[in-house]
Amino acid sequence: MCMADDADLSIPLSEGQRKARKPHKCFECGRVITIAETYMFATYIDQSRAKTYKTCAHCHVAMQWLGDNCGGWIYGHVWQDIDEHVEEYRGVYPKVARALKRLCVWQAHDWRIVYGPGAGQMVRVPAMPAVVE
């Protein structure tokens, strides 16, 4: 079950994509978004307060997948929701489950290559896993 199914709706004020002019922290993975890196921002009214979220392009892939498959996501719970989908889809949609698990592994390593000659370098922004119908 998708977390967005039970969530209260927030009212969007503004959303968009920016190139960082200073370091920011990704709300989802906690990684530092470096200068000149593209990130997504969104400002919502949630429980009568305005809240701005900044998300790295890597985490935004998972958010888009949840948006297409579940109708939305809950900020701060994207990776928990993706992990639950991995378990749910393992026997039914194994290719999708593997692709989602791969996202979880990269996210756990701060989107960096762990082994080999490229160790420490950022991975490219991953492709979005297939949509489940």
Describe the structure.
It is a single chain. 31% of the residues lie in helices and 23% in strands. It has one domain. The longest helix is centred in the C-terminal third of the chain and has 15 residues, at 94-108. With 133 residues, the chain is of the alpha+beta class. Helix 1 packs across helix 2 and helix 2 runs antiparallel to helix 3 (94-108).
How would the global form be characterised?
flat
Terminal CA distance reads 14 Å
How many individual β-strands? 5
β-strand amount: 15-25%
Number of domains: 1
Largest sheet: 3 strands, antiparallel
Task: Give the mean pLDDT.
Answer: 91
Q: Helices and strands, in N-to-C order? A: EEEEEHHH
Helix/strand-derived category reads alpha+beta
Low-confidence stretches: none
Could you list some keywords that capture this structure?
5 strands, single chain, flat, alpha+beta, two-stranded antiparallel sheet, 133 residues, 3 helices
